[in-house]
Amino acid sequence: MARSKGLDLIEVSPNAKPPVCRIGDFGKYNYEKQKKEKEQKKSKSSTQLKEIRFHPNTDTHDMEFKCRHLIDFLMQGHKVKATIIFIGRMMVHQDIGRKLMDEILEKLEEVGKIEQPPKMEGRYLTAMLIPDKKKIDDKKKSMEKQKAAIEN
Length: 152
What we know:
single chain, alpha+beta, Ubiquitin-like (UB roll)
């Protein structure tokens, strides 16, 4: 039947019993199949782990600047890892690093939630955060209101 119409016999589901086939243009079928696969890849959201490193003697401006980057990463939907590195004699003053980590987590609480609380791993104090969709939506709404107020 396919040859008489000048078309191809396309095997749609080879694992079914009996196998499912249809008559049509194979080039067109293949194109549509690739197009659907591309659409599915686009709709798939990929999350990455973003890490920013601090030192116990990181100044307030630098900390705020890096925290803004972490907030942007969380708003984009990525996981975030904040790391404080202790070098040399800084290991003696871990309390300074813990205070810094508490400040960082306090700033990031507005858009994320703690997945893994701060813990020491050798010379590194690390904490993991994941985006909190509800808080992110609230923040975006408040930012839009601020923009509207500035424009008026």
